[in-house]
Amino acid sequence: MDNMNLGKHISGQFNTELENVRNQVLVMGGLVEQQLTDALAAIHDQDLDAARRIVGSDHKVNAMEVAIDEECTRIIAKRQPTASDLRLVMAIIKTIAELERIGDVAERIARMLTDNANKPQPPLVSLESMGRRTIKMLHDVLDAFARMDLDAAIAVYQEDDKVDRDYESVIRELMTYMMEDPRTIPQVLNVLWAARAIERVGDRCQHICEYIIYFVKGKDVRHTKGDEFTNLVNKP
Amino acid sequence: MDNMNLGKHISGQFNTELENVRNQVLVMGGLVEQQLTDALAAIHDQDLDAARRIVGSDHKVNAMEVAIDEECTRIIAKRQPTASDLRLVMAIIKTIAELERIGDVAERIARMLTDNANKPQPPLVSLESMGRRTIKMLHDVLDAFARMDLDAAIAVYQEDDKVDRDYESVIRELMTYMMEDPRTIPQVLNVLWAARAIERVGDRCQHICEYIIYFVKGKDVRHTKGDEFTNLVNKP
Q1: Looking at the complex, does the CB of residue A82 fall below 8 Å from at least one CB of chain B?
Q2: Beta carbons of A232 and A221 less than 8 angstroms apart
Q3: Global ipTM
Q4: Is A149 inside a domain boundary?
Q5: pLDDT by residue (tens digit) across A119-167?
Q6: Does the record bear GTP-binding in its keywords (chains A, B) (predicted)?
């Protein structure tokens, strides 16, 4: 299935530019995925050096966002894309904004470790299952983006319910922890913020799914839910 | 100061379209500002009916975002804008995404009230000063957007430090509250989420400032801080 229709352009140069910018998104996505994976591993291993490296490298993701954004604006001005080409550029502009915010989450988790280096350890372990699930969502949505695969995007979209359930259970666990020993409240709140941030990664992956659907189907499915979403996505 | 350079277009119709879409952004912004104001008033007055109305009207903001987004893509495809016209369209696309998320914050605050209708009241009062300050930031950034006023945008940008300080103080207050009476933890956590959401409104207003600066100066100042930010903004 050649959703990209890249063969149709008269300008081979335009093809190359679109292909390059798509590849840059995937490189950026790979970097963000690595940072999130490293951040969760740093929690597991209580590895402060790893956490410091993650905090120190967030600027790379930011720089990539700005560069890809500029390239997209340049393509619009120079190539005046329409129809699916324009949708692709718009989908890219929105996708990189989500990826940048996911990179911020990795940084925030890493900072939680470095800021609490000498304090008693809160129950960080409860973040692991949720963390693994969101990393898988991010990995799969980047894969769907690479192939502009509608079905894969819909599958990732539906995974977020599980992240939400994980999150609810983490919150209940942390709440019990605080109520049993109120002295832990400041440390546990840090874990709560991290849990919230990880939960938001699932939402952001859902947004990227919506941009893939927008590109493939030409329909804006944001803010639709349940039957309305299914109908919009399935209509030919 | 005519930053808009609207007079330069050969096509009067194009002028009208750009002017219309800018006006729609201001209408959307006004609606979001009203919802945030109403949500904070509902907290103050413990007004559940008002809170339910806010929850019920978030779809209006969502629909406006989708409509303006579509109109921007249509303008790009049909009018093939370049230079400052293209920057204006890009700034609009990004601004409405921030406004939509600010609308979500109003909804979340309202839901916190409706979901906890019959439970003991947590110390909601601590959100007021912070809430007032972020509403003022939102009002002022919309005003700066209407006039594409660089100096006004920079002034709003700098206000966020005060919101951050308010937020820190709210968090400390709520933490003390929980430690003194751990039975209140579930309710107080709701207030914490609301405080966090309001603090994020300040960040989102800063993002809109960055889009105004991008339009006026043609420079992407995201992810720059301190001297680097000042230098980029002040360079001719």
Answers
A1: yes
A2: yes
A3: 0.91
A4: yes
A5: 777 766 678 899 999 999 999 999 999 999 999 999 999 999 999 999 9
A6: no
